[in-house]
What does this fold into?
Amino acid sequence: MSGRCKFLSTREMADLIPDGATLAVTGSGGGLMEPDEILKAIEARFKATGHPRDLTVFHTFGLGDGQDKGMNRLAHEGLVKCVIGGHWSWSPRMQELAETNQISAYALPTGVMGLLLRETGAGRPGLITKTGLGTFVDPEHGGGRLNEAAIATLVERLEIDGETYLRYKPIPIDFAIVRGTSVDRLGNITAREEPADLDVFSMCLAAHNSGGSVFVQTRDQLDVIPARSVTLPRALVSAVAIVPIQEQTYLGGYRTDFAGAAPAQIKPSQAPTGIRAVIARRAALEMPEQGVVNLGFGISASVTCFTDVDPATLTVCAEQGIYDGVMETGPLFGISSGPTAIIPATSQFDFYSGGGLDATFLGMAEMDGAGNVNVSHLGARPVGPGGFIDISQNARKVVFCGTFDAKGSDIEVVSGGLQIHKHGAVKKLVENVRAITFSGVQALAAGAEVFYVTERAVFRLTADGVELCEVAKGLDIERDVLSRMGFAPIVREVRQMPTSVFE
It folds into this structure.
């Protein structure tokens, strides 16, 4: 192998990381593009020697198995001192360190983070964007800080031509820890058998052009990788660790359909049942007749199971850079069986940021009378927004999907409507959301069309506030809806929810 690039073991890579270094780590839930063997080696060195320590870790997507892998590998007191993450849920061990103030913890939008890496690598003064205005990453609402130990300023406001923007400050990267499928004799990397490219290129660009190093984990070595198949050119690669046991995801092995090299595997319907089906069916009525649509996690991911829109007129995508195919859910969210296109996540977020989405269907943990939605701060532990802010703030139409309340509700779907036997103990329509992940004010300023769909009522965002539009048959508006809310919505002409959604 020529140039700077070398073959090293994962242990040798770990030995080269000094105390106090800043690491950028790629990967997404379910093991997607996760360089876990390198992370495992860093963990093993720390346990044996106490080094490296006091690391700053930057990760754009959430990565880990909820137990030992991914970011969980680095979740040891003393190993890390600061984490800037897009999503935290897959690493409960790191969440615990943040919750107890053993590390400085921040959350920024996933798309913003990937684009910030690109801007850092390009030598520009950070990322200047409106994405995040009015949300918890806005300096006026906390600047993305998740705990008391987080005192640094990562984001600032500025005015350009009379308009307000956010400037996310550059973050120089000492080590990019990434992975691909194969390396060739020259040091070029391909991700040809991976389900996504994610932000590997921008992450490595930031490290290389910051004077840092790029460590790549691959499954094998090839003699030559065709130029058009190269994901990461050798000019950016410092060292490669070949790990023959590397698997595509936590499922094990390698599936060619996940990489777009085989037709989609048709599975039994993943359509939900009960009130979750009601929500998905009603949300599906907001599906545009044609255009580009993004689907989120949970109930919103199943909306396409119920739409009558011709699939040929819609392009369905996910923030990982995936288009069409049969989208996976749960831990493998962001992977598609038989996708029609796979592009870098940074390019996908450029598309989103510029208003390329005709509609998006997303989850909803809390909402309030200003139309704000919270999905990033649930309970005591940090969660983070993932791509939620990037997507929701820039789509032309936003449809939030979620149950009206939570914890202990007992609701029966009857012919054409609902019968509530017991209300949930936790209100989700509250006076003020705990943290703003979606800003109603910003949505109105952008002219977006916004709906909030629950099993018993549908709301929409207007210039006057949140309006109650529909209520399910069989329910009393005052008893079952208004009295169970933490705010008073606008009530004008309330229609009955279509009986078809209760079939």
About this structure: The mean pLDDT is 96.
